Amino acid sequence: MWKTIGDPIVNVSSRYSALNIDSKLMVGFNNIELISDRAPETNFREIAECKKLWPDHAIIASLMVDTRERWHEFVKRAADSGADGIELNFGCPHGMCERGMGSAVGQNPKVIETIVGWVMEAAEIPVIVKLTPNITDITVPARAAKKAGADAISMINTINSITQVNLDKMCPEPYVGGQSTHGGYCGPAAKPIALNMVQSCAADPEVNLPISGIGGCSNWKDAAEFIALGATSVQVCTAIMHYGFRIVEDMCEGLSQWMDSKGYKTIEDFRGAAVKSVTKFENLNLSYKRVAFINHETCIGCNLCWVACEDGAHQAIDLIDPEANGLDLGPGRLPGVRIPRINEDRCVGCNLCSLVCPVEGCITMLDVETGKDPITWKQYQERLARGEVEPIPAHP
Ligand SMILES: Cc1cc2nc3c(=O)[nH]c(=O)nc-3n(C[C@H](O)[C@H](O)[C@H](O)COP(=O)(O)O)c2cc1C
Fold first, then answer.
1. Fold of domain 281-385
2. pLDDT, tens digit, for every residue of 99-116?
3. 16-277: CATH homologous superfamily?
4. Catalytic residue numbers?
5. Which of 25, 52, 102, 156 could form a disulfide with 92 if both were Cys (CB 3.0 to 4.6 A apart)?
6. Nearest CA to ligand 1 atom 4
7. Residue 12 burial (CB < 10 Å; 0-12/13-18/19+)?
8. DSSP summary character for residue 374
9. Residue 19, helix vs strand vs coil
10. Which residue ranges does the chain devote to CATH 3.30.70.20?
């Protein structure tokens, strides 16, 4: 995917900022960079050179211009350069939208339809419409792209953000001479938003377009998740900026090994396999129950699960004295040190303890056989109104 080509712009200094969490750097990344600052002729010439050197590899030219004539011109120049496809950048949340481009387009379905229509008049190679996540319902612009004849959609571009404030300068980063501006957020922390939007579009029969999944993809597992939620391809930006192009080899190898372990021969064997498991809340089964199970052999006694459950969840973990409760935890345990124990009657199966536990696999969530027939919220409300079921008692 080529850096977006358009009328060259002038960038500012500095341009990037990040959300670091403890020692983990660039969990989230933010930029106020614009489209390519190089001349279109330079970009198109280099696309042609790359295609000549690597004819078997696809190159997609990302474009962003304004008028119908300019779109026609750039679409033709992209095709003439040998690009295999075009991506329309309707997503940049900064700089270009003030000029009526980028996310200013992606937030307006009517304008999407118009511009995609212009592009399709001139396009002889596939056209992907890249969508902005800075919108309430991503399926609305996706449907507009479909209606105007796009061949595919890609998502997400970056999310409006301020990652941090420099408290000495009383100004957010990236710092530009005493000022800053809202930048585009991406990187690992953006993946859940991207997955959510990819699934929404994959599940919408009115969209029904191939989807290129983007946002926080950093390893093979992320890529597999995008594909399982319906993506036909995956793009990587921040992780490459962080670790370099070589990580793609690890991604391909990891994905391939995982596919072998599952017996998947092609991407199509599992593409979209998780889409239908996402449903409306009202369709979830109220009879399903899970509870936490703590493996005391691996528990290090940090009691983070107890703190989280006590202060932030359902007070369903007791701290008990193992000896007094007849538990022999083997050698190496300090006598009198209390350990966490799940109170199954109080546990609502919220997962919090398993999420805060620092020991992998120490707290697992186990299915409970309730003996109750499945019932959804909707069915429960209907049957309750007809007096066919007793009200489910409120949590104590
Ligand atoms: C420094 C930087 C520059 C970017 N430039 C472009 C661009 O020119 N055109 C575009 O469509 N998206 C651009 N993006 C957005 C990425 O292509 C991608 O949609 C987004 O960063 C989410 O993916 P990621 O989490 O893998 O970075 C840029 C992102 C970054 C961080």
1. Alpha-Beta Plaits (3.30.70)
2. 666 667 889 999 999 999
3. Aldolase class I (3.20.20.70)
4. 92
5. 102
6. 33
7. middle
8. P
9. strand
10. 281-385
